Protein backbone atom coordinates (compact mmCIF):
# COMPACT_ATOMS: atom_id res chain seq x y z
CA UNK A 1 0.00 0.00 0.00
CA UNK A 2 2.80 2.40 0.90
CA UNK A 3 4.59 1.75 -2.41
CA UNK A 4 1.42 2.55 -4.37
CA UNK A 5 1.07 5.86 -2.53
CA UNK A 6 4.68 6.78 -3.31
CA UNK A 7 4.25 5.89 -6.99
CA UNK A 8 0.98 7.85 -7.22
CA UNK A 9 2.48 10.89 -5.50
CA UNK A 10 5.52 10.77 -7.78
CA UNK A 11 3.38 10.60 -10.93
CA UNK A 12 1.16 13.45 -9.74
CA UNK A 13 4.23 15.55 -8.92
CA UNK A 14 5.67 14.99 -12.40
CA UNK A 15 2.35 15.98 -14.02
CA UNK A 16 2.05 19.08 -11.85
CA UNK A 17 5.58 20.24 -12.62
CA UNK A 18 5.18 19.77 -16.37
CA UNK A 19 1.73 21.41 -16.48
CA UNK A 20 2.70 25.07 -16.37
CA UNK A 21 5.43 27.54 -15.63
CA UNK A 22 4.77 30.08 -12.90
CA UNK A 23 6.29 33.52 -13.33
CA UNK A 24 6.04 36.47 -11.03
CA UNK A 25 5.73 40.06 -12.15
CA UNK A 26 4.34 41.58 -15.33
CA UNK A 27 3.52 39.66 -18.48
CA UNK A 28 6.16 39.78 -21.22
CA UNK A 29 5.53 42.09 -24.19
CA UNK A 30 6.50 40.21 -27.35
CA UNK A 31 7.61 42.17 -30.40
CA UNK A 32 5.14 42.61 -33.25
CA UNK A 33 6.09 40.78 -36.42
CA UNK A 34 7.23 43.13 -39.17
CA UNK A 35 5.25 43.10 -42.44
CA UNK A 36 2.47 40.97 -40.95
CA UNK A 37 -0.26 40.20 -43.50
CA UNK A 38 -3.41 39.68 -41.44
CA UNK A 39 -5.56 38.94 -44.52
CA UNK A 40 -3.87 35.53 -44.77
CA UNK A 41 -5.52 34.51 -41.48
CA UNK A 42 -9.08 35.68 -42.18
CA UNK A 43 -11.55 32.80 -42.10
CA UNK A 44 -12.34 29.71 -40.05
CA UNK A 45 -9.53 27.73 -38.42
CA UNK A 46 -9.84 24.28 -36.82
CA UNK A 47 -7.75 23.04 -33.91
CA UNK A 48 -5.75 19.94 -34.68
CA UNK A 49 -4.82 19.02 -31.11
CA UNK A 50 -6.10 19.92 -27.66
CA UNK A 51 -6.03 18.98 -24.02
CA UNK A 52 -9.27 17.51 -22.67
CA UNK A 53 -11.65 20.06 -21.17
CA UNK A 54 -14.97 19.61 -19.39
CA UNK A 55 -16.67 22.36 -21.43
CA UNK A 56 -15.77 21.04 -24.93
CA UNK A 57 -16.57 17.34 -24.72
CA UNK A 58 -16.83 15.94 -28.23
CA UNK A 59 -16.61 19.33 -29.91
CA UNK A 60 -14.12 20.37 -32.55
CA UNK A 61 -12.58 23.69 -31.57
CA UNK A 62 -12.69 26.47 -34.12
CA UNK A 63 -11.69 30.12 -34.33
CA UNK A 64 -13.13 32.48 -36.92
CA UNK A 65 -11.02 35.54 -37.71
CA UNK A 66 -12.61 38.53 -39.45
CA UNK A 67 -11.46 41.98 -40.53
CA UNK A 68 -13.27 44.60 -38.42
CA UNK A 69 -11.46 47.75 -39.53
CA UNK A 70 -7.92 48.63 -40.68
CA UNK A 71 -5.58 47.14 -38.10
CA UNK A 72 -8.37 45.40 -36.14
CA UNK A 73 -9.10 41.66 -36.34
CA UNK A 74 -12.14 40.07 -34.68
CA UNK A 75 -11.94 36.57 -33.20
CA UNK A 76 -14.84 34.23 -32.41
CA UNK A 77 -13.82 31.00 -30.64
From TrEMBL:
InterPro entries: Calycin (IPR012674), Lipocln_cytosolic_FA-bd_dom (IPR000566)
UniProt xrefs under Pfam families: Lipocalin_2
This protein's UniProt keywords: Signal
Domain of life (superkingdom): Eukaryota
One GO CC term, this protein: cytoplasm
Span of the signal peptide: 1-19
Positions of the Lipocalin/cytosolic fatty-acid binding domain: 39-77
GO BP terms: lipid metabolic process; response to reactive oxygen species
UniProt cross-references to PANTHER family, sorted A to Z: APOLIPOPROTEIN D
Name under which the protein is recorded: Lipocalin/cytosolic fatty-acid binding domain-containing protein
